[in-house]
Amino acid sequence: MTKKLVIWTLDWVPAGDAPRGFVRDLRLRWAAEEAGLSYEVRTVPFDDRATNHLDRQPFGQVPFLTDGDVNMFESGACLLHLARGSEALMPRDPVGEAETLQWVIAALNSVEMVTVPWWFLTITGQTENGLTGWMNQRLAHIERVLAERQWLAADRFTVADLLMADVLRVGLVRAHGNRPATEAYIKRTIDRPAFRKAHADQMAHFAAADKAGSR
Ligand SMILES: N[C@@H](CCC(=O)N[C@@H](CS)C(=O)NCC(=O)O)C(=O)O
Hints:
By secondary structure, the chain is α+β, with helices and mostly antiparallel strands.
């Protein structure tokens, strides 16, 4: 029997520059597209999201994933789960796999762990927030790495690039400072057909919810 892959997200989010186009179900859609996996998207309600699906995502967030008997939350963990099943996302040789894993964790734990709080303080009006120096340092290190290579791991696109590019493409972060190698990296990564499809599908999903008046 074929396992059914289901990506769970919210039924609706507000329109605007964000969050549409940035809700993290996009990471899973994108990975599934890269891997050539068929999948379904299902939803939980935006209203009461903090409590209405705690049995599936203990922080009341999305995305989460069903893959046959496997139920998972945390976009990074879900990506690694998909990558274990697809060479398109992660090389099979031990060195390539180790490089991919380290950069996946770096995207989450060394870059996103500062970009998200920085972004949050910035949109809440604290433009000169205390995280700016720390974030600048992290972004400068990534710029140095990307000035020397096309992809983070194994000399090819991997799930680590999918995640790092998704972390770095956030509008305010991208517009902050001047990092030509990073900008070129984001551009070539989000120019991939799999990203474009995943992005368009997410935008269409929320537009359909507007139309259906589900809010
Ligand atoms: N660490 C989590 C973060 C998930 C997350 O931030 N989800 C956002 C959408 S991208 C969310 O559900 N926001 C709604 C909320 O927190 O109320 C992951 O990567 O899966």
